[in-house]
Amino acid sequence: MLRMTSACLPLIAPGPGAISAPSTPQYVTLDQMAALVSRSKKTLERRKRRKDNPLPSHAVEGGGGKADEWIWSEVRPWLEQEFQRPLPERFPARTDGH
Predict the structure, then answer these.
(1) pLDDT of the residue at 10
(2) What pLDDT does 72 receive?
(3) In degrees, to the nearest 5, what angle opens at C-alpha 36 toward C-alphas 46 and 90?
(4) Buried b vs exposed e over 9-30: b needs ≥16 C-beta within 10 Å?
(5) Please, are residues 91 and 32 in contact by the beta-carbon 8 Å criterion?
(6) Would you place residue 93 in the very low, low, confident or very high pLDDT band (cuts 50, 70, 90)?
(7) Is 51 exposed, middle or buried (0-12, 13-18, 19+ CB in 10 A)?
(8) Looking at residue 23, what is its pLDDT?
(9) Running DSSP on this structure, what letter comes out for residue 21?
(10) Three-state SS for 69?
């Protein structure tokens, strides 16, 4: 029986219109979201609790001193609509070494 491993497969560059594999989700906190839309964390906390068009639910519940976390690709459209500003598809990486 012949077994092929991924090391045996040829590398083929995707053609035009190819759909790339989904990237690893980026998790963000209220503080990070607030900074990108130039609002306070408290503003986002209020919008999280409101009845009409609230902030989407978090993906990871914090607790014990840890912040709740949202998946950037899921919360970005809401932030763009809510604050009327375009936001990057990928959350900006820190460049200060942290």
Answers:
(1) 47
(2) 97
(3) 120
(4) eeeeeeeeeeeeeeeeebbbbb
(5) yes
(6) confident
(7) exposed
(8) 77
(9) P
(10) strand
Tell me whether residue 34 is in a domain.
Answer: yes
How does pLDDT run across 22-81, given as a tens digit for each residue?
A: 579 999 999 999 999 999 999 999 999 999 999 999 999 999 999 999 999 999 999 999
Place of tokens 């594999």: 21
Residue 38 forms part of a structural domain: yes
Neighbour-count burial of 77, counting CB atoms closer than 10 A to its CB (0-12 exposed, 13-18 middle, 19+ buried): exposed
Number of separate domains in the chain:
1
In a domain, 91, yes or no: no
The pLDDT value recorded for residue 11 is 46
Predicted pLDDT at 13: 52
Q: Which residue has the tokens 């990108």?
A: 36
75: CB partners within 8 A, 6+ apart: 28, 33, 55, 56
